[in-house]
Each structure stands twice: as structure tokens, then as C-alpha cells.
Amino acid sequence: MRFSHLLLSPLFAASTMALLLLPQTVRAFGTATTTKTIIAAFSSSHHAKKTLPKFLGRSTFRAIRNKEVTIPLMSSSSSEEVTTEEIDWEQYHNKNNLNDQVFSAISGDGGIKVTAATVRNLVNEFMIMHSLTEVPIDALGRTATCSVLLSNGMQDEQVFQVSMNGDGPLRGIVAIANGKGEVRGYVGNPGIGSMSLQEAVGKGTVNVVKNHPDWPNPYNGITAIRDGDIDRDIGIYLAESEQRSCALAAATTVNGILCTSAGGYLVEQLPDCSEETMKRVETNLATLVEKDGTDKLPTGLLNTGVTPLEIAEIILDGLDMKPLQQIEPKAACHCTEERLFRAVRLLPKEEVDDILKKEEQIEARCQFCGKVYRMGPDEVAERFANAQGDPSKDSDMNL
């Protein structure tokens, strides 16, 4: 039983911190993470019961599993449980999409989960932070939207990273989001001129990684870039690698140097979804395309000002929709001077000494927020003297 739209799959992902060194100290910083590829197929309900809590969040999974009358209602200010009759739908309305919003809901029978997002403010913040031109804004906006959608329902500290490692002029795209809705990202070349998104991305690989501070190792997977439309390529990755049946769509609208709309939706088929529910969702998705009125779903739809709640209502129409979570995604970087030093420790001591001798300091710039860090010889020597443990095994390096 599969969506006719796009087929995706269970999400195994993680995140790695990336700092870009200034040219004179490029040798002073670098990390390599050994990851393990996991391919999971939800071929049985037993397997789903063991793994779905990780990907959907345990409270969401319990509601689905038990088909409870009361559901966990999570927002930025509340985690109370309410009955269907007590739901205050007004709190989910986001008039004119003034605020960025991620809203998720589930069908009454627990067979379908829908997550919808609008992230215009987030994308414009990235534009200012990285001085992005039109094509990079579009590329990072779509990638960040997918990251936000796919991280929904995770534990707060759990992170989802997607990287488009293409050989096009963009020189790669990275977006990372965690369960709290904190998002960061960058493109390799923020100032490229006018061209198609496919040309800018080029050929290469889609890398999806998932991690948590308590996990001994991150998990990752990889497929080839087939299309260059980003959300479609991420969908292909999830379908081929992880066998989950979903529909994923993301889009941005850029006018000059301003993003006027950005967002998307993720529709996930859960275990034991009935044939009746499945057919109703497919019909509703077709209605969504008609409401969009263009061949570029969801671009035209977002330009009408439709909110995440309204998208979910359309997709789950007639299926007794129940809210699961509402958060406001925010740009947030986790770079620190301590992380810089951990990366420096991965280099041979002789190489570090050589850089300090030539440059008199180690200098690095965070790719996610642009902050510059500097360490002089005395500070480096003191930190080496007090350092303990193996930096390559520090899980914090992978977040």
C-alpha cells in the first residue's frame, strides 16, 4: 500500500558540526566521523514497534499504538493531554503566516501522520546571515524545510541532517534541525548567479544522518542525486533506503533578495493504516494539487497564504484529525570555542605547531553562523596540557 505521490521511508540520520577555516589556516581544522549505514524496512508490525518510537517520538507512538481517545497535545507552551472534544483549534491558527510554524496531526484511526511547515522568516534570516543570492536562497530554503519536516517528533536533542553533495556551482547544501525546532544550514557558494536549481545542485549524493548525544555512533545513509529538485531527491533517498511510504513536498518563492514564502508538508503512512484511510488521503492530496492551481506544488499553494493547519486539514479531511505538536522553528547555531579545540586535537601536534609558527594563531569561521574563533599559542598550549580523552570519540563533535 503506497502513495502515488512519493515514496519515502524510516529516518536514520545525524548531524556533524562544520567549521570553515579562513584560507591561511585551512589545515588547522577538520573532522571525520565514521558512521554506520542502516537500512530498515517496516515489513512487520513487530519491527515497527521496536523502531517507530525513535522516529515519531514516544508520546506520538503511544497514541498511535493504543489509538487512545486522549492524545498528547504539544505546543511551545503546553504538553497537556486533551480529548478531541476539548481541542481549541484557534491556538493553531497562524494568520497570514506571520510566524514560522510547524504543525503535525494524526488521523483519528492512527493510520496517517501529517506534518506541515511555513518557514519564510527562517529562510530570510539565513539569507541575511550568509548573504545569499536568489538560487542559494531557494536551495537552502528547500533543504531546511525538509530538515524541519523530517525532524518533527524527535527528542529535543536528537538531530536530523540532510546534505546535498553535488558537483554544481552551489558546492553543496547542508541543513540540520533538532526536535526543539532549532535549525542551521549553509551552502558552499552563497553568491552564484542566475541558473536553474538542477544546474546549481549538479550530480552527486544525498546524505542523511541522524544522531543523539547519548548514542555511541550516528547512523547515516546515502543515495545518488537524481533530479536536483532537492525535496524529490530526499524523497527518493527515503524510499530507496528506508522503505517508508510518504509524500514529501517543499518549496520557496524568491523575489529578488527576499523570500516571500517557504514551507512544505510530509504525509506519512503508519503501520496498520487501513485501505479506506489510504484512499481518502490520496483523494485529499489530489484536492490539494487542485487548490494549488499550478504544476509546482506547493509553491502556488504557499503563495496563497495557506497555513500549516489548513494544509493538514485538507490532507486529513474526513479523517477526524487530531493535533500532535506545534512549534516555531528558529535559526540556532551550536558552535563553541571548545568544539574548535576538539577538532584541532585531531591534527598531528607537529602540524598545529607549524600553523602557529607561521600564522601566530589558529583561526576558524563557523559555516553555519559566520562567527570567527581565534586561539593564540599560549591558549593552545594550555588546552593541550589539560586535554583528556580521545576527541575523535566525543559524541558532541557529531552534533
Automatic annotation (TrEMBL):
<keyword id="KW-0143">Chaperone</keyword>
<dbReference type="GO" id="GO:0042026">
    <property type="term" value="P:protein refolding"/>
</dbReference>
<dbReference type="InterPro" id="IPR016154">
    <property type="entry name" value="Heat_shock_Hsp33_C"/>
</dbReference>
<dbReference type="InterPro" id="IPR000397">
    <property type="entry name" value="Heat_shock_Hsp33"/>
</dbReference>
<keyword id="KW-1015">Disulfide bond</keyword>
<feature type="signal peptide">
    <location>
        <begin position="1"/>
        <end position="28"/>
    </location>
</feature>
<keyword id="KW-0732">Signal</keyword>
<keyword id="KW-0963">Cytoplasm</keyword>
<dbReference type="Pfam" id="PF01430">
    <property type="entry name" value="HSP33"/>
</dbReference>
<dbReference type="GO" id="GO:0005737">
    <property type="term" value="C:cytoplasm"/>
</dbReference>
<dbReference type="InterPro" id="IPR016153">
    <property type="entry name" value="Heat_shock_Hsp33_N"/>
</dbReference>
<dbReference type="GO" id="GO:0044183">
    <property type="term" value="F:protein folding chaperone"/>
</dbReference>
<keyword id="KW-0676">Redox-active center</keyword>
<dbReference type="GO" id="GO:0051082">
    <property type="term" value="F:unfolded protein binding"/>
</dbReference>
<protein>
    <recommendedName>
        <fullName>33 kDa chaperonin</fullName>
    </recommendedName>
</protein>
<keyword id="KW-0862">Zinc</keyword>
